[in-house]
Amino acid sequence: xxxYYIETFGCQxxxxxxxxxxxxxxxxxxxxxxxxxDCDIIVINTCAVRxxxxxxLYGHIGNLKNLKILKPDLLICIGGCTAQNLKEKILKxxxxxxxxxxxxxxxxxxxxxxxxxxxxKNICEIREKGFDYALDRFRHTFPFKSYxxxxxxxxxxxxxCIVPYVRGKEISIKPGKIIxxxxxxxxxxxxxxxxxxxxxNSYGKDLDNPVTxxxxxxxxxxxDGLKRIRFMTSHPKDLxxxxxxxxxxxxxxxxxIHLPLQAGSNKILEMxxxxxxxxxxxxxxxxIRSRIKDSSLTTDxxxxxxxxxxxxxxxxxxxxxxVRFNRAFTFIYSKRDGTAACSLEDSISKKEKKEWFxxxxxxxxxxxxxxxxxxxxxxxxxxxxxxxxKNLLEGRLENNSVVNFEGSNNLIGRFVKIKITGAKSFYLxxxxxx
Length: 434
Ligand code: SAH
Ligand code: SF4
Ligand code: F3S
Known about the structure:
Helix content: 25-40%
Largest sheet: 6 strands, parallel
Strand order of the largest sheet: 2-1-3-4-5-6
Mean pLDDT: 96
Oligomer: single chain
Low-confidence stretches: none
Bound molecules: S-adenosyl-L-homocysteine, iron/sulfur cluster, FE3-S4 cluster
CATH architecture of the largest domain: 3-Layer(aba) Sandwich
CATH topology of the largest domain: Rossmann fold
Number of helices: 13
Distance between the termini: 46 Å
Structural class: alpha/beta
């Protein structure tokens, strides 16, 4: 039996796309390989969001050259956002890559593999736009939880961001299709669903019969047996009171909201084209906290955006201190060719940006630590997700925090009550309540 090996970089949407690729290759009679050296097909699903991800990819494809020399029949396939964005570069620098396919061409992969074998020339298939999603054709990695995309693409064009260029304009998937998929998954034993979209809050506006994200969530929450519903990513400019209400009212909609701040300074937010102010953001947080009991909040922050000065950065620190996020994903600004921000002048040195970045990370780590400490002594319900480090089980709380504890493998996929006994910045420890 021929084997495939898939490597996935980037966000949850890419992880979902890889689950689609697995389904397609399984259907063609391939099986998953544990090791890259044993496979007949390598698929790299790439991310283009920051330069670092791209550079890492080039190093990686470069390393595959030796494997290809040892195994000339090995097929190297490059998909995802960098394939979509920079096909010419990949074709030119890595002529031994067999197939390059775009983010709108995933369902074609099996036919591209056949074609490659027939014509024995490298193939590059990139559609500029399109809708390529059949929701029933993916293999969810965990038997008890699954992703479901509800929209693809993005219309926001934040000035730093490549995503709208590599994923196309926002297209919502019909609510009926989403609900049907969720029902089918639950009937197969799935207890947690994570709804995916670059901006879930703007879901449904493009449909012939417009539906809001809150209405969709409400419908999904009524599925019998669906214990946990999560969603990513929320954009502050579209987060409605209606959404806050539905989260507050439905016990199976998790009270964790990932709400990217990006920056605290109004000047920088405007230059980023985020379309909200620091004050708007703080007001949304206030509304969430006053309505949703025990809500948890995570965020994304970019430092070193062109033109950002120390006093702008201090507004970011100020929001971080005021909100006290449970966790923040922090990034140093990375210039992306073709985006609106790429032509902006930048006067701040790299060294200074790195110092600010470190300062932000230290502040947030301390806050994460303190927020986690507050959970010690509580006994939350936890979904056991698998094995973590030191042979301990790893489970997730409603608030998305991860807890490590001792227990047997047969608990994986089940709910247990855990008494929290310890807390670090990024995880908790505890014991199963008998
Ligand atoms: N649609 C989501 C995710 C976008 S990508 C959202 O709107 O939040 C994930 C994160 O990467 C972004 O939130 C942003 O913080 C970061 N990011 C995007 N482009 C970047 C760039 N050019 N440089 C640094 N970080 C970037
Ligand atoms: Fe990028 Fe902004 Fe769209 Fe998120 S909302 S994907 S940051 S353009
Ligand atoms: Fe990266 Fe593409 Fe996601 S650029 S963050 S993999 S949409």
